[in-house]
Amino acid sequence: MATTTKDTDDSDGPLARWTQRAIQNPERVYRALFYAAMAFFLVTTLFPFYWLAVLAVTPEGNLLAGSFLPTINLFGVSGTFPLPVPKGFNPAAFVTVFEQVPFHLYMLNSFALAVTTTVIVLFVASLAGYVFGRLRFPGRALLMLGILAISYFPPAAFVIPLFQAFAGNAPITVPFTDIPLFTPPRLLNTPGSMVLPFSALFMPLSIFILTTFYGQIPDGLEDAARVEGTTRLGALFRVIMPLSAPGVATASVLTFIAVYNEYFFSSIMATSPEAAKWSPIVGGILSYQTQYTTQYNLMAAASIVGVLPVVILVIVAQERIVSGLTSGALKE
Amino acid sequence: MARVRLEHVTKRYDDQGEIVTAVDDMNLDIDHGEFICFVGPSGCGKSTTMETIAGLTIPTEGEVHIGDREVTNLPPKDRGIAMVFQNIALFPHMDVYDNISFGLRLRDYPQDEIDRRVERAADIVQLEGMLDRMPDEMSGGQRQRVAIARAIVREPDVFLMDEPLANLDAKLKVHMRTELQRLHKELDTTIIYVTHDQEEAMTLSDRIAVLNSGSLQQIDPPLTCYNEPDNLFVAGFIGSPSMNFISGTVGESAIETPNFSLAFDPATVEGLGVGDEVTIGIRPEDIYPGEFRNEIRDPSSLISARVDILEPMGDEIFAYMLLAEGETSMDQKQTTNNQLLMSIEPDSEIQEEEDIEVAIDRRNVHIFDSATGDALVHKLEPVGSDTGVTGREAESDD
């Protein structure tokens, strides 16, 4: 080892020469690493979409016949094309999606759940963020730790008790006794049974983000708002929140996407995958699958349609999200 | 009518288990239309006192009255006050118009009334044509004027200004100072002004409240604070450069200091006896080079000194003098006791390292009790002969 690292003349092997160049000019290595990482991310994130698109436009009858990797014959040399290509072209699948199942209603369900949850989370997390970020009181660190701890609970831990509670059949009792406390209303198959647990589960992340941002707003601005005529709450919503726009955007987009994609809770709280029972997008996609058939092309088309709103949202808000995520990460 | 009264206001903080008293039993009575300056060094409690008046801080004890209401526990918005902050605190996400009209919009004023008042306020602080600018497009002075406009647009009973000129450059500061005086005349409201700059306090205010370590030292018109300071702190704080302090002991007919003695009849002050420790306070402009001694109405006799450093200011020269030779001791008290600062005419011939003689105008000598710091005398009674001071040549001359 020692001898190879000492030798620096031209007789070295290619690896040694490359290493020397890299040490003298690290920019090259950074650039190489950047391109490698970018290529990796692009392939892993974009290939599934490409594959979905291929599936979606392939007519249903061709789905299971033959390979998606065509054999090509180029100047007498034949081989397998390395990328899957559609077997036929049937863009009508994007229309059929809405004809067979009211997929737009499922999308609307997911959208409504996501918007409601985001509004609730933003409001409550703003109050919490204000308290944690701007006030000093004993036990603050402990409370914050408690919220952090709860956010690490697996959601599955809550499913059964919540399902029982939302079924509204039996009263909630004091633990280990039969003393009834109250009977909750029947919330299954209503947005309430989903929005409530979503809000609770996605709250801690938003609280963390907003605490960081609200904590950075100078005290003078809040004082000025209060002297000018707002209450503390008024100062929060009129001055502190607008000035923390990147953080608020980050928290809301993350919450929105998480709820929009959620399936675990909603598949249980909506007792069957019907749009009328507030089943979300994934419920809709799965209803292209019947006992005897699975319409992969429609499922793929529905997936693409379903993801569009989020893509649009992220493109619109991306600058804010990036600045929000990084500044939060740096300060916390 | 907005009279502001503080009664026994005390504010204590719990700073990680340690109790800090920021304001200690403050009593103040400020009349309607008065311009009051709170001055004092950093951390003296002047900003905290103002915050208790604003309602941003609730006092631990005591009461705050504005007008004829007790407002101790009212939120800031219900106190009829407006405030200009040291860091200006314009809302960065609003343009000038929105900043100025913020308070009015919150109170649901009709739109034409808001427009009228914003226009008038912008007119007073000379901000016409800038109403659609954002704060970050403006200079420091312009922002400051927006902050003042935001305060006056609400037509409050009391204006609170927390070092509003602290972040401005010297020239703008002087300009804004005159604008503030004009504003005070125009609006006829009570203004409470916090500053650590005693020059600002002297020029602006009707009365100065001098604060130190949380308690009120003196509240009087500027010239009273200057000419008749209640104690050593006020004497040292008001006036720039500050007063010379020399400690001494009361003798039979003079105050003896290590380097000279000043004729003084202890009988003229009640409760003062021979042997008491006192501090003599003399302002730099009340010390004169020996040749002017005959022009002073009640001069002391000559004191020998050596000129250490000259600081020409243009209109005057500050001469730092040492009273005794070879006393470059590290002992702080000893050195200050040896030093004397004199303000002299700019055309003076005095050179550094020159041995000179100086005389003190006895009518402007202050005597303080060294132990308590309280002022005992502000003007020495003339003594029959003109040998008020006996210079100690042997000690101070080389």
UniProtKB/TrEMBL annotation, chain A:
It is found in: Cell membrane. One of its GO terms (cellular component) is plasma membrane. It is a multi-pass membrane protein. It comes from the Archaea. Its main location: membrane. Keywords: Cell membrane, Membrane, Transmembrane, Transmembrane helix, Transport. GO terms for biological process: transmembrane transport. The chain crosses the membrane at residues 32-56, 103-130, 142-167, 194-214, 235-260, 296-317. Residues 107-317 form the ABC transmembrane type-1 domain. InterPro entries: BP-dep_ABC_trans_perm, MetI-like, MetI-like_sf. PANTHER family: INNER MEMBRANE ABC TRANSPORTER PERMEASE PROTEIN YCJP (PTHR32243:SF18), MALTOSE TRANSPORT SYSTEM PERMEASE-RELATED (PTHR32243). Belongs to the binding-protein-dependent transport system permease family. This is Sugar ABC transporter permease. It comes from Haloarcula pellucida.
TrEMBL record, chain B:
It holds the Pfam family OB_MalK. The keyword Protein biosynthesis does not apply. Residues 4-238 form the ABC transporter domain. It catalyses: L-arabinose(out) + ATP + H2O = L-arabinose(in) + ADP + phosphate + H(+); D-xylose(out) + ATP + H2O = D-xylose(in) + ADP + phosphate + H(+). Its EC number is 7.5.2.13. GO terms for molecular function: ABC-type transporter activity; ATP binding; ATP hydrolysis activity. GO terms for biological process: carbohydrate transport. GO terms for cellular component: ATP-binding cassette (ABC) transporter complex, substrate-binding subunit-containing. InterPro entries: AAA+_ATPase, ABC_transporter-like_ATP-bd, ABC_transporter-like_CS, ABC_transpr_MalK-like, ABC_transpr_MalK/UgpC-like, Mo/tungstate-bd_C_term_dom, NA-bd_OB-fold, OB_MalK-like. It is a peripheral membrane protein. It is found in: Cell membrane. The complex is composed of two ATP-binding proteins (XacJ and XacK), two transmembrane proteins (XacH and XacI) and a solute-binding protein (XacG). Belongs to the ABC transporter superfamily. Carbohydrate uptake transporter-1 (CUT1) (TC 3.A.1.1) family. Part of the ABC transporter complex XacGHIJK involved in the uptake of xylose and arabinose. Responsible for energy coupling to the transport system. This is ABC-type D-xylose/L-arabinose transporter.
